[in-house]
Amino acid sequence: MMSIKENLEKIRESLPKEVTLVAVSKTKTNEEILEAYAAGQRIFGENKVQELTRKWELLPEDIEWHMIGHLQRNKVKYMAPYVALVHGVDSLRLLKEIDKQAKKENRIIPCLLQMHIAEEDTKFGLNEIELDEILGYEHLEHVKIMGLMGMATFTTDEQQIRKEFRKLKAYYERLKEKLPQANILSMGMSGDYEIAIEEGSTMVRIGSSIFGARNII
């Protein structure tokens, strides 16, 4: 079995230099994260605010923490002081709450808008109308929309995955017309990141291919 360091090196070799790797560390121990940190990884993603905050408090200060899971508005205040990027903004109400809490911390929080592209009901995300509503809302001074995020259907059908990623890429191109600073297209996980990169992803979220199977907690 390969070590975390060896897994990371193998994945890095497969990534174009313009693609950012987010190591998905949810359910992983501080020791496992530190092993990845020692191998040079600095960006980690968590999907629960409580776990994210606990790790932020205990682990090295130069780690860049990303919130990659579904985010409840009442949890935003706990991560507002430190979160580096919120991947899954799936409503204007949530974006307003992030803006509100960021203002209290006197900082601007970078965010990605999550689009619903999968042909299944288990994924969260905005539709085209909701995306336009957010882009037309001009009263947010403490958030910065940096791009889009989306998750493809969990399937072995490569053509369907490609179709969904292409749909997200098209949304991304539209977004860039209105927000030239947007430069992140976060799509692709352990099972489909190579396809995502071929379809234009600039950020991939990889967990099990780095750390092994997810721990059950």
Structural description of this entry:
The protein is of the alpha/beta class. It has one domain: TIM Barrel. Helix content is 40%, strand content 18%. An eight-stranded parallel β-sheet has the order 7-6-5-4-3-2-1-8. Strand 1, helix 2 and strand 2 form a beta-alpha-beta unit. The longest helix is centred in the last third of the chain and has 21 residues. The mean pLDDT is 94.
Any descriptors?
217 residues, single chain, 8-stranded parallel β-sheet, 9 helices, alpha/beta, TIM Barrel, globular, 18% strand
Explain briefly what this protein structure is.
Helix content is about 40%, strand content about 20%. The chain has nine helices and eight strands.
List the helices and strands and how they pair.
Blueprint: H1 4-14, E1 20-24, H2 30-38, E2 43-46, H3 49-58, E3 64-67, H4 76-79, E4 85-89, H5 92-104, E5 109-114, H6 128-135, E6 143-149, H7 158-178, E7 184-186, H8 193-198, E8 203-206, H9 208-211
N-to-C span? 23 Å
Give the strand tally: 8
The Rg value, from CA coordinates, equals 17 Å
Low-confidence stretches: none
Instruction: Give the overall shape, derived from the CA principal axes.
Output: globular
Strand fraction: 15-25%
- Summarize the amount of helix as a percent range: 25-40%
Supply the CATH class: Alpha Beta
Q: Supply the CATH architecture.
A: Alpha-Beta Barrel
